[in-house]
Amino acid sequence: MKRAILAGLVAALVLGYAFIASAENKPCEEIEPCKEVKFNFTRYLSMGSGSVAGVDYPVAAQICLFVSRSRGKPRVRCNLEVTSGSVDNVEKVSAHKLDMGMVMSDVGYRAWHGKTPFKRSHKTLRSLFSLHPGYLTLVVRKDADIRILGDIRGKRINIGPTGTGQETIASELLFHCGIRKRELALAGKLQPDAMVNAFQDGKLDGYFYVVGHPNNPIRNAAVSTAINLVPLTGECVAKLATDRPYFPKTAIPVGQGDLRYRGIDGETPTYGVRATLLVSSKAQVETVYTLVKTVFENREKLKTIHPALEKLTLQEMFQGLTAPFHPGAKKYYRERGWLK
């Protein structure tokens, strides 16, 4: 437990005191890095991120920081809310409890079309842009003797909390590959922080995780526990990726230096999704315009926030989007000549 708490604190500290204070709803004027400029906020945006253990949180936090410190007009204050992930963000944005949220591309597709786990279509969602890839990752203990996906039968595997994007993707994989949850010794429903603790404490043989890489919790787990990353390949995986355009084939990178997972020497084949930023159709045009403009003007800085964004291209920022663009985003993209 202490390891997860420490990892969360480290992730938060990396973002800097400025955003931590802002996220606690303190005025920007009271925050040290903001003292050089007086901000008179006229618009406000709330963003749902996901668990602090993943990539979404630091990326969303940096976006909020860019926007809150922007000198553009209108002056927009962006506040971040930690949520349980993509599905939660969709529901909260649709219910107007949040203005926008980080949503994996497959969840965005399902939300728009009203497919499981959603009971209705969410047609008030609007797209802004895409960000880092999220890889379906199966982390296992090396001593669990799990070399291929089929080896998880009889093992203690965390699937993810019911209704989350992680659980939906992992369950879809198991279904298409003929693995029933009842064939597992345990089909866990733990949140990311809890599953990493359980894994390190020997209570899990492995866990599915939809996340960008490198990932601090996985790297920390590899320090104390010998791990493997299981390749997700075979006919059933190939068919799944072919039938669903939001599931492109990819490979988990090896990483360099301190970013390398101990004991992992090569790329791991898998498939994935892409993190997207979705907003309510009721969000004000000029507010959304300011956010989008600020992000693209700071795109090179954004790419330095996390290694998962390092190779993000302009083209990739328009991939995996199902919902139509928000008018505020359209306005900026037309100014840049990216949209007719």
Compact summary:
The chain is of the alpha/beta class and 340 residues long. It is 35% helix and 19% strand.
Number of strands: 10
**Proportion of beta-strand residues:** 15-25%
Spatial gap, N to C terminus: 52 Å
Low-confidence stretches: 1-39
> What structural class is derived from the secondary structure elements?
alpha/beta
* CATH level 3 topology of the largest domain: D-Maltodextrin-Binding Protein, domain 2
CATH homology superfamily name of the largest domain: Periplasmic binding protein-like II
Count the DSSP helices.
12
| Corresponding CATH architecture of the largest domain | 3-Layer(aba) Sandwich
Structure description:
- This protein has 340 residues and is α/β, with parallel strands linked by helices.
- The chain folds into two domains: 194 residues, Periplasmic binding protein-like II (D-Maltodextrin-Binding Protein, domain 2), CATH 3.40.190; 139 residues, Periplasmic binding protein-like II (D-Maltodextrin-Binding Protein, domain 2, 3-Layer(aba) Sandwich), CATH 3.40.190.10.
- Helices cover 35% and strands 19% of the residues.
- It has twelve helices and ten strands.
- Strands 1, 2, 3, 4, 5, 6, 7, 8, 9 and 10 form a ten-stranded mixed sheet that branches.
- Helix 7 packs parallel to helix 8 and helix 10 packs across helix 12.
